[in-house]
Design goal:
- By secondary structure, the chain is mainly alpha-helical.
- It folds into two domains: about 30-155, no CATH class; about 170-340, no CATH class.
- It contains 15 helices and six strands.
- Strand 4 (about 90) and strand 5 form a beta hairpin.
Length: about 350
């Protein structure tokens, strides 16, 4: 863009650079009227032709929503007056042409015949040309409609639904959402973004790449944790090969109501504490180690499911919990210990 050379710093320069970067990546090309997306295209605006005095003959989408320059590039290259308006080309009811040489047979003559057939039914009026927005049924432009149209063609829909567990902190819910979307900051995902790392191996076992399915499913440490969780909840936990298998298995469990809330609380707590363990070894944080994982899973699981089942909320400006909440949590936790460290999902 020419204005980037005039403004090298400041807020406006930063905006111009962002726009240029978006254009270069073809997310929004310089022409906002017709966006190419992969093998297809997205028409956002077109011109409702009036007298043709405001519409470029070659570059504006005034004919069937697509610029003639995109349809007939060979004819555009031969034209000597590429900047003409539609009104300047339609004189006394006749279309005029300004070729730098005579048209040859083959593709050039075929393209010209196709162009004439498209122009045949066109008649100009006394009204002005009007831009029409195609992004909504009302044909009225809005930024939200434009954002929605672009996102629907550039962002893949989520592969599975993410449930918001209201009794867990937002950071854990966001973590589960990012995990299901495969957007965690694993070493594999960081390298995909062009970040150079000195070591891409798992910080727990140092044997395999640091990926989401390895951290939570196939790593020896994670398998040991899942074996313990299976023994704790009195349930057989299979050896999954990927996160997709884990989610599919969990979604297919024939458990409903309070039992499912309890199990989901344990699942979310387990995954979250596995991630905390991985981060502690990655960044050499001695405050959270393997010996802490199981205790943290038990405490956070009971706290989350007890609040969800009884619908107890934190009260007071200081975030103090009611006495009933504390008693319920402590008795539930002690009860689990008294039955041999197992949770019998029979209530």
């Amino acid at each position: 863009m020419s204005y980037l050379k005039r403004f090298s710093s400041g807020t406006w320069a930063a905006i111009c650079k962002c726009v240029a970067a978006i254009h270069d990546k073809n997310i929004i090309p310089p022409s906002l009227m017709h966006i190419k997306l992969g093998n297809g295209s997205l028409s956002l605006m077109h011109i409702k032709l009036g007298n043709g005095s405001l519409s470029s003959f070659w570059y504006d989408p005034w004919l069937e929503g697509m610029p003639l320059a995109s349809r007939f590039p060979r004819l555009l290259a031969l034209d000597t007056r590429k900047s003409d308006l539609v009104a300047e080309r339609f004189q006394n009811g006749v279309w005029t042409w300004f070729w730098r040489r005579d048209l040859r047979g083959g593709i050039e003559q075929f393209s010209f015949s196709s162009l004439l057939s498209l122009l045949a039914p066109i008649n100009l009026s006394r009204e002005k040309d009007i831009w029409v927005w195609d992004g909504s049924s009302s044909n009225v432009f809005s930024v939200s409609d434009a954002r929605r149209q672009i996102d629907s063609h550039n962002i893949a829909p989520p592969s599975r639904k993410t449930d918001w567990f209201k009794t867990f902190p937002p950071k854990i819910n966001i973590f589960i959402w990012r995990l299901k979307m495969q957007r965690l900051a694993t070493k594999e995902n960081l390298e995909k973004k062009g970040i150079i790392l000195s070591n891409s191996a798992c910080a727990l076992c140092h044997l395999h790449a640091d990926t989401d399915h390895h951290i939570f499913v196939t790593c020896n440490i994670s398998r040991q944790i899942w074996v313990y969780i299976g023994s704790w909840v009195n349930m057989h936990i299979p050896c999954w090969a990927s996160m997709e298998e884990l989610w599919t298995w969990f979604d297919g469990l024939q458990i409903q109501g309070k039992k499912r809330l309890v199990l989901r609380s344990i699942w979310y707590s387990t995954l979250w504490n596995m991630w905390r363990l991985r981060n502690s070894y990655t960044f050499n944080d001695a405050a959270f180690r393997k010996s802490h994982v199981l205790d943290n899973i038990i405490v956070s699981s009971f706290f989350g499911c007890s609040l969800d089942i009884k619908n107890i909320k934190l009260i007071g400006h200081c975030g103090c919990k009611t006495l009933w909440t504390l008693c319920n949590f402590l008795f539930t936790f002690l009860g689990a210990l008294l039955v041999g460290n197992k949770i019998l999902l029979l209530f």
